[in-house]
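Example 3.2
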Amino acid sequence: MSVDYDLVIIGSSAAGVFAASVAANWNARVALVEQGQGCSTHVIAHQTILEVGRTLNQVQRANRLGLCDTEARSQTWKPQVWKQTQRWVETAERAIAVTDSAAVLASRGVEVIAGSGEFHRKPALGFLVNGRSLRSRAYLLAMENLPVIEKLLVKFFSVNPPASTLDIPGLEAAGYQTARTVLQQEAIDHLNRVVILGSNATEVELAQTLQRLGRSVTLVTPAKHILHLEDPQAAYLIQAQLEAEGVQILTQTAVTQVRQI
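Structure, written as tokens:
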């Protein structure tokens, strides 16, 4: 049976928009179904802040080697650094909002479809959205949150998903930030000491970034080492690097309560 597209992308996340652009460059017939998601900008903000952290880390290394003068060392961690970072983030978000808009994607040959849909098997495999069946050679799931992946990890790999942070007694009353909110201006301005619960790739990356932005960071995990789903030797190397940069890591440590002292 003939198909209508070479690729149908489900979800207008940053990954979905990027995939659509790359496929369009190869003259593929592409449809992008928004699936209830607008183009996310928090990924752009996150990557911008990561780059600032990497640059500041290089400055610190230059300081230790005596390659920067005293004035440069004294200026490194002033509040203006974070304010300038926020301006870069806002500029990047405005630029991406234009280049990744539906109008620009459409001009490149990508059919952007508003709405949400679901797969069907009969009379042939396709994706049904707005009463229309999209048949394609390949489908890409590009939603930001995929609960089904967590279920598959439990079923096939016996991996238990972490308990909700809200299940920790006292956490709600004490207040907390998430990986999405902690790098916002209002949140980070009031953070000097940070405790991060968990040690997957997101938490590890966040710990390193906050440490490089001049915060004191402690990473807590009940596992034997960070990144417990990855190769142990690689995980231990990354753990050593984090500790060398000043991140305190507590392994085999369960959080039973949070309270203000």
